[in-house]
Every structure is written in C-alpha cells, then in structure tokens.
Amino acid sequence: QVQLVESGGGLVQAGDSLRLSCAASGRTFSSYAGAWFRQAPGKEREFVAGISWTGGKTYYADSVKGRFTISRDSAKDKVYLQMNSLKLEDTAVYYCAEDPRHSGTYYLPTDSTDYAYWGQGTQVTVSS
Description:
Elements: E1 3-7, E2 10-13, E3 18-25, E4 33-39, E5 46-51, E6 58-60, E7 68-73, E8 78-83, E9 92-99, E10 117-118, E11 122-127
Parallel strand pairs: 2-11
Antiparallel strand pairs: 1-3, 3-8, 4-5, 4-9, 5-6, 7-8, 9-10, 9-11
C-alpha cells in the first residue's frame, strides 16, 4: 500500500518562500504522475501543480504559474513544491497525490478524482 507524507508547511509572511515535500513509501519504483492540491476553508480542493512520472512534464494552475515549481527526485521517491512570492490567498492545506491509473504515461490529470493516493495534508498559512 502506497503511503504519502507531506512536510514543510508553516506560517510565513506574504512574499516569503516555502518548500513542501512529499515522501512516498510502500513501493520500490514509481511510474505515477504526482500532483499537489490545496484546500482553503470553505472551498473545494483545487489542483495546484502536476508532474509526470519522469519529471519531464509539468503543469500548473494559472493562479500559481510563475511562482510555484513542482519537481521530483526519483532516487528518493519524493515530490517537491517550491512556493515563492506567497500571497494571502495561498493559505490552505496542501495535499500531495499520485495517479496510478495512468501509470507510465505523460497524462497529468487536474481532477482530484483521478488521484488514488493522498497524503494527510500540511497547513500553509500566509499572513500580511
């Protein structure tokens, strides 16, 4: 059973940077696309960024494009989200997820229903 664990969240000021990490366990090799989603209070979970299993393809929500960077270290089986120029509206619980359904492809779903594995979430709070 694949398990995902996020870390790196915290309280920062607007304009600061933060790097989230997602560590996977319970397998020996990943051919799954990875993604970050976030959910703010009273709002639906939304797609933030996705990365193909090789790391060669990425995709971002318009709201974070140019500020956030998703990457992965296959040797460590980790996916990262570097968040720069944080804004108040970035405040949310951030979740990492993996899509086993399209294993080995370069398809990057943005719908949360395509992702079968989820972490428990890490809180990111941006203050003014």
